[in-house]
Amino acid sequence: MQRSVVNPVVVGVDGSASSMSAVRAAAGLASLYGLPLQVVHAFNWLPGSPAQTDAHPGATAHDLLQRAVIAARQVAARLPVGTRLLEGAPGSTLLRQARAAALLAIGDGGLSATVCPRTPAPCTSPPAPPARC
């Protein structure tokens, strides 16, 4: 008997409010389409790097992933949620994870708070044109 592969909805988290919003949106979509959710956090483990101010980055990252799981379960309590803590630059690491994903969700880094006016309507933009391959 052959097992079918179910590609998850992958969401990247960095602890920001926008990444947690992305987790909630991804959880809703994963639940709607009957897909599992994979929460991913990626960062460089280089000690002493200028951006490294946390004395215990691994523990902090695991805590972040657990907070994201809680946020996802608040949207869809029975949703299968997995986590991955990966080493590497966040952008390229998430793009690698997207290869096996049904959907990749990321936050906007707070951009909507500075670009979109504060109105009851959500901030939207037209879809990107198809890539020419």
From TrEMBL:
Residues 8-112 form the UspA domain. Pfam families: Usp (PF00582). InterPro entries: Rossmann-like_a/b/a_fold, UspA. This is UspA domain-containing protein.
